Amino acid sequence: MKQKFDLMQFINQLVDLEPRLGKNLVKAERLIVKTLNSHGVKYRRQRLVVADSSRLAKEFKIPVPLEKHDTNNLLVGNLINPRSILLTHFDAIGPGALDNASGVAVCLKVLIENSGFIEDNLVVFSGSEETSQEKPIYWGYGYRQFEKKYGLLLKTCRVIYVVDCVGNGRLHFFQGDYYFRQAVPLKNLPPIKKKLFVLTGNVKHLLAVCHTQKDTVVGLSQKYLEVSYNQLVQACCRI
Question: Worst-scoring range by mean pLDDT, 50-59, 68-77, 92-101, 115-124?
């Protein structure tokens, strides 16, 4: 029998943990790991240490100081020759329903409801996308640490999907320097630009709630979450 995964139930659970700027990231990671384990999905950890960046918090008017904290990238799937790589993150600045409990939930559903997916593909759940001690780009640290260790996989895979802020409208597959800088500011983008896509829903709504207290589950739609999941699965199957 095919396993089922409730997107909205998981999103509510993750948002309730408030994984904001290093706070409760351990609990958020534990929830993801528990979900993977309960469905027999194996994973590896890539350790991240996010240094104190309280100066950046002041510079960018983030309301709480960013203290040094440990977190991880959770790597699920093929770490040798993946066809596709999905990048998503579980840390947040606001409540984080859209940004990015939605992306985490959709990627988990892909893993849980498609038993053979991990054989040929890789999903990276990062605990440090919203913050970074690396100036001038103060976000995307976890993705760059993945790039540092597994950059060859990014170059040799067929496609890379950054699943970030979905489920608030029709899914879009964006390309271009603006979207890459906002969602996946890697150090060596030129070789992979043609196969890199940022998957996002309604951008106008996203900009209205991103990194604010308005980013709650009220802004998400079960319909669009399911549609986003189906489109992502179809896109991965086509490659």
Answer: 50-59
* E strands present in the chain: 44-50, 69-77, 84-89, 121-126, 159-163, 172-174, 196-200
- Whether 164 and 96 have beta carbons less than 8 Å apart is answered as no
137-147 tens-digit pLDDT: 889 999 999 99
Instruction: Give per-residue pLDDT as tens, 147-168.
Output: 999 999 999 999 999 999 999 9
Query: What single DSSP character describes residue 85?
Result: E
Burial class of residue 218, CB neighbours in 10 A (0-12, 13-18, 19+): exposed
Tell me how far apart the alpha carbons of residues 226 and 168 are, in angstroms, rounded to a whole number. Answer: 11
Phi, psi of 166 (to 5 degrees): -120, 165
Q: Please name the residue that has the structure tokens 């948002």.
A: 15
Which long-range contacts (C-beta less than 8 Å, at least 24 apart) are formed by 132-138?
132/50, 132/53, 133/50, 133/51, 133/52, 133/53, 133/56, 135/56, 137/181, 137/185, 138/53, 138/56, 138/60
